[in-house]
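Give me the fold.
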Amino acid sequence: MPTRAPMQTDISPHPPSCWIITSGKAGMENQALGLAEAMGLHPVLKRIQLRTPWRQLSPWLRVGLAHAAHTAGDDVSPPWPALAMGVGRQSIPLVLHLRRASQHHAQPTRVIQLQDPVIDPKHFDWVVAPQHDQLNGPNVMATLGALHRITPARVAEAVGDFSHLWQHLPPPHWVVLLGGNNGAYTLGAAQIQNITKQLQILHAQRGGSFLVTASRRTGAQHIAQWRAAMQNMPHYFYDGDGPNPYMAMLGVAEALLVTCDSVNMLSEAASTGKPVYILLLAGHSAKFARFHQSLIAGQHARWFQLPLDLFQPRMLAEPERVAALLKNKLGLA
């Protein structure tokens, strides 16, 4: 367990300074932002690039870290923050540098690494990683799924901004969140045909309409196949063109049908308190299977099957839960 003293805070309403160190990938940034915001922090994003050889050898190369940052990235020179969150392997050299270089300061930088860092968690103050990664250690906090920025306030605002897009469609709204190929699962023509046939049956049984959103991994060819297969069902399809109504869809959903390949989408869907149903794709992954089983065991989701049995799920609130734990451990509660 980390032995450094609790973070010193001023007697003021201002939270401690915080950097989020990231390679710039939006999904990773959102996880760190969601946690920082749940902690009441006002983080500064530091999108970094690494020099050779740290870029190729992160996180295993842990010497000369003061020289790892490339000048093409954001400035990470002093004064350093009270708290630094790293997310993704490219962030690790700089997170470790801040921890080492500040250790003799009056207020050393405390570091939190999100996701499995691959190296021993002892190199960080705290590591926050999905429980399906099976990472263990006295300073490891396991999450059920991914952290995110979905909050009731953001969802409500999005509903007000985007509901005009489907106001002509009959309720209830069945929201479908599509992923795509990811190395473990495949979304192909056969899967599209099978799922859309089940959606036709769902519509015949319960009526309403479908709000569908695709991800970057869905692909143009598969989006076209989805559109063709759903042309005789009342629906709205977001294909990435224009402002994204994703959060608004979460807000108006009667239930959420989510392909099994995305930890992020399933985690976000389960945070709404709406019934979540997992759509099975071709493929298998032991890690994903552990995640799916945890969602189901926690009553956060069920496998999709017909006839659809609407259930009252347990809301998944991991950013808030982990934020409270970290604030207590860091002396910020």
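Residues 152-303 form a domain with the Rossmann fold fold (CATH 3.40.50.2000).
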